[in-house]
Amino acid sequence: MIPFGDLSREHLELSEELGKIIKDVCQDGWFILGKKVEEFENVFARYIGNNVYGIGVGSGTEAIHLSLVASGVEHGDYVITVPNTAVPTVSAISFAGAKPLFVDIDPNSFNMDPTQLRNTIIKEKKRLGKKLKAVIPVYLYGQSADMTPILNIAREFDIKVIEDACQAHGTEYKDCKVGSMGDYAAFSFYPSKNLGAYGDGGIILTKSPAEAQKLKMLRNYGQEKRYYHKIIGFNSRLDELQAAILLAKLKYLDVWNNRRRDIATLYSQEIKNPLVTKPSQMSYGKHIYHLYVIKHPNRDGLRTYLEKEGVATMIHYPIPIHLQEAYNDLNYASNSFPVAEKCVKEIVSLPMFPQLRDEEVKKIAELINRYDGTENPRF
Ligand SMILES: Cc1ncc(COP(=O)(O)O)c(C=O)c1O
Which fold has domain 253-370? Predict the structure, then answer.
């Protein structure tokens, strides 16, 4: 079976180095908010851009949630995002007490369509006024959204921008890495991400030192110093073990991202089936292929066939958020977001991880080329 992802192949390369690092942290005996967290926050922020501050938190979800809280989002406010994201983008909005408002996507990038964003704001601004607080563009599959128009629209309507960069560690937009363009940016270190921890973890980036200070309190019970609580806060901290592991793994991130890009190029060269739409690399940036997602009109048939042939695939994501049971109360009808809803029916994510071998990529492409679009393909 060719696995969809396989972290054990990565661990084989790193086990000695990481084993020592883990032992050192344990011997040090300091597990929460210590030197490793601070060092990782600084090094990761510098990797993304100049004059950026990092605040290590418990997960990507928490990074979005705390950014929303820091930006003043309160009960009854509204936050705009896309319907074809991982559910945590929207759970974070709900946990901040706000309601999500969705806008449709661009079919090539799979990301927020700036024209739809403008139309939605113009339509809703009269009704919602200052309750419309923020927008969360998501960099789905490792590719940036078209940020210049999104940032301009946000500025024009005075709403905050929180970049959901949870799938985009090292992604570029024009000349900069994503994570330094909005008011805040959220990254996830879920193990399978391009930079993954050995458990949960996340980081918030911001260019404002005052916001960084506030976020450091918010993640740690609202305390400025121990047992002196200035604001009401949470417990959401990146721990020392994860920070030490991430610090070691960050050295390899560019190499791994380049390998993912090479794998994507190989897939795109080798897949010749005319029914397949291959992912677009938008001219405005650099894709880091957290996922390699193709479209096929008989996606379910293709998946069943690949499964039988020993190739694991996944769907990111099978149901858009506005049609998920948990969000029934938002009362969105189906076909509210036709582009996203059409994509959802056709997408399939192929195996993608840096240790995937060229022979495996070629084998997958060859199988896809042999699939004629029916449930029982010809051989
Ligand atoms: C787009 C997106 N947003 C948010 C998250 C949440 O990150 P985490 O799983 O670390 O909470 C993820 C990760 O699953 C994600 O892919």
Answer: Aspartate Aminotransferase, domain 1 (3.90.1150)
